[in-house]
Predict the structure.
Amino acid sequence: MRIGELADSCGVSTRSVRYYEQQGLIAPRRASNGYREYDELAVVRVRNIRELLESGLTVEDIRLSIEKGCLDQPLSTLPRCPDAVRIAADRLGALDRRIATLQDLRRRLARQILETETAMACDGTLVADERVLASATSNSH
């Protein structure tokens, strides 16, 4: 099948298919006319790649599974690779660290807004409309 057919059957763009190819995640054959030709393995891999990317894994994470032949069947029927849980847990840990960093930055910014708002209120330079915006941004989530 051609690239457009593969993309349509997997719910991705042709640009995504080309990117997966550039990253070494799929390898099409070339027809005599130079067109890319994809087989059923490519369909399975692209669907798996899309699902794993949507779950938060990176291309590098996925590459490790492909190198071990772990994405050659649908994820729902494939026995998981031994490293799959470790890779996913590592990615989850990285996301947790990023979230904690962002929450800390948010707290700092909210504190700065509150301190500035308080100082402006004390010297009379804060008007009511400005206070509403500052109050809205200082709420914690």
